[in-house]
Amino acid sequence: MKYHLLALATAVALAAPVATAVNLENPVETTNWIVGFHVMPDIEVGDDYNGAKVVSVTPELRFITIETSNFAVFNARVTLDDNVRYVETDVSDHKLFYTPNDYFTNHAANWGYWKIGADKAHDKTLGSTAVKNGHVDSGLNKGHEEFAGQSRVLQGWDFRDGDNNPDDTRGCNWHGTHTTGTAMATINNGKGFPGLSQSTILPVKIFGKGFGGCGAGSTTSIANALKYVGDQGSHVSSNSWGGGSYSSAINDAIIYSVNKGVLFVAAAGNDGCSNCIGNPWKPVESLVLIVTATDVNDNGASFNSKGPEVDISAPGVDIGSSTSGTSDYHYMSGTSMAAPHVTGVAALIKTLNPSMSASQISNRLTSTAVDLGPSGKDPTFGHGRLNAAAAVY
Q: Which domains does the chain have, with CATH numbers?
C-alpha cells in the first residue's frame, strides 16, 4: 500500500526594514509576540527584553518569542531598535492541507480530483451523512471495499426488478458502482480512489437484470424511481443516463421530486452531436443541472452531446473508480463519469450550507465554474468546468 503524507501549511516571515507590524489602535488579542533580528543578540529564555519576558529563543532563525500584557508599550520600545527586523503575533492559525491516503490518489486516472481542486475543497469539509444522494443508475456493488459495512449506504430499491436488492451486476459493467464511487467512495481508507463527499448513499436501480444485459426499466418503474428519490428525502440525485421518448410520467416525477428539494444532476449524453440534449432532461432543463465531460487538458470530450441546455462540464475522460468484486477499479469515459463529479461537490456545498436550496446550490456550482471555450455560457461547457475549490468557499 502506498501512503501519502499530509503537507503542513506554514507561514514564513520575510525580512522587513523596520519593526512596525501592528496597528496600535486595533491590537491583535494575544500575549505572545515574535521579534526577529538582523543580528541575533545574546539573549536567553527568562531574560527581560524591553519589559517583556523571553519565553523562547531560536538563534538559527534569529528570533525570540516574548510574552507581554502591554504590547503598545513594548512595541513603542522595539521600534527604536534598529536591529529589529520584524515583530509579529505568535498565532496558531495554520492548518493541514488535506491529501487523502487512498491508494490511487496520485494515479493518472484520478486526474479529475486534482483538476477540480477537490483537495482544497476537502480542506473545508469531507461531506456529511446528513446529506443524502439518491443515486439513480444500475445499482451498487455493496460488497466493494469502498462501501462494504458502512451505515451510510442505505438499502435502496431495485425498480428494474421490483425488489429491495439494488445490486449492480456484470450486465451494466458495474456502471452504477463506478459513478457512485466517483461521487461518494470512502475517503482516506487507504484503498482505491477517493470520492468527493462522504454522504449517505441511496442506491436506486433502474438498469440491469441479473447477468443478462443492461436493459432499462419501464417508464412506470423509472417514474416511480425518480419519485422515490424525493420521497426518501434525497438532497441531490446523480443521473448518468437518459434518452428514450418523451414521457409525461417521468417529466412529472422529476418535477415532483424537485418540489421536494432534490437537485437533479444529469449527464448530457454521449452522442457526439450538437444541439442534441435529449429526454428526459431537455423538457425540464431549467430544473436540472446538465453536465458534459472534459479531458485532462480541459478540452470538451469528443463524445459530448451539446446544446444550449448544458449548464456545466466536469472531468469525464479516463476516470478511475470502483467496479466489480471487492477491490476492483477500472477506467471509464463518458458524461456518465462527469455528472457524479458535480453530484459530489453539490453534496459538499449542502454540507456546509444546510439551508441552501437546490437552485441555490446549482447557482453556486455554475457561478464558480472555470469558464472554458467562448466567453460565458456555451453549448459545450455550459458555464464552465466544475471548480470544487471555489464552490465550497
A: 8-89 (3.30.70), 97-391 (3.40.50.200)
